[in-house]
Amino acid sequence: MASLKKVLLPTQASFLIAKRFRGKINIQRPKKPHFERQLLIDLAKPKYGTPKYLLPDTVLCDRGEKRYAREIDNPFERILANECLNWFNTSKMVIFLHVNAISMEDKMPVFAALNKNNMHLRTYGKKIVSMATTGTRYEAVNHLFTSHQNIIFGQPENVAKMFKIMKKAPQLVIMAGIIQDRLMSKNELLEYSQMQNIDVARSQLCAVLDSAGSCLVRQLTQGQQALVGHLEKHVELQSTSSKEPQESTKVESESAKAEPESTS
C-alpha cells in the first residue's frame, strides 16, 4: 500500500471547503448591513424636497421670469431657417407629412426614390419653420407643425409619382400641400394628380372654344337659312301652280280637236 501511494500522485486537500447555507433568508426583516455599507447607503440616499401642493403661493410665484426668459440667438438655426425659406420659394410643390414610428431602413428607400424623381425630403422642427415662414405668405403652415415633421419639395408634374412612392411607406401620412401658391388638402392633391397633361388640357380647351364659336355661328345663320328655305319652298309652289293651268288648257284643246273628228 505504501509503494502504491508512492507510485500514484497524492491528491492535495483544498484550503476552502464549500458549505451549503442551510438557514432561510428573512425578507421582511433583513439583517442589518455592516458599518461601511450602511455609510454608503446613507450617503447615496436621495433627498426630495417639499411637494408643490404643500408649498405656499408666494413660493410658487416666479414673477414671470420663466415666461419672459431671454431666447438665445443660435446662428445654426438661422442658417436652417434660411435654407427652409429658400426651399419654399424655389419649389412649386410642397407636401407636408405626418411621421409615425418608422425605422431608417424603411425610410431610406423612400428618400432615394424621391431624390431620383427630382423630389427632396427634408426634416424641420416647429421652431425652424416658424422662423422661416413668419412674415411671409407661407405663415399659415405653422398650424400644421407640432414637432419635427418631414416636408417634400418638388415640382407639380411629379405629384402622381409622389403618391406611388408614398404607398411604399404607410408610416408617412400626407396631410396637405402647396401647389403653385395654393394650399390643398389630401383629396385635392389626389384630384390634381389625376388630371391630364397640360398639352391635352390645352387641346380640350381649344376644342371647347371651337365648338362654342361654331355653335354661335350656327345660331346666327339659323334665321337666314330658315328664310332661304321658306323662299325656295314658296317658289316651288308658285311654279307648280302656274304649270297646272297650262296643262289644263292643253288637255281642253286636245279634247276639242278630238270631238270634231269623232262627229265626221
UniProtKB/TrEMBL annotation:
Q: Where is the composition biased (Basic and acidic residues)?
A: 244-264
Gene3D superfamilies attached to this UniProt entry:
3.30.70.1730
**GO CC annotations, alphabetized:** ribosome
| Region Disordered, residue ranges | 236-264
Q: Write down the InterPro entries for this protein, in alphabetical order.
A: Ribosomal_uL10-like_sf (IPR043141), Ribosomal_uL10_bac_type (IPR047865)
Which UniProt keyword terms apply here? Answer: Ribonucleoprotein, Ribosomal protein
> Organism's domain of life?
Eukaryota
- Write out the similarity annotation: Belongs to the universal ribosomal protein uL10 family.
Q: What is the name of the protein in this document?
A: Large ribosomal subunit protein uL10m
Annotated source species: Spodoptera litura
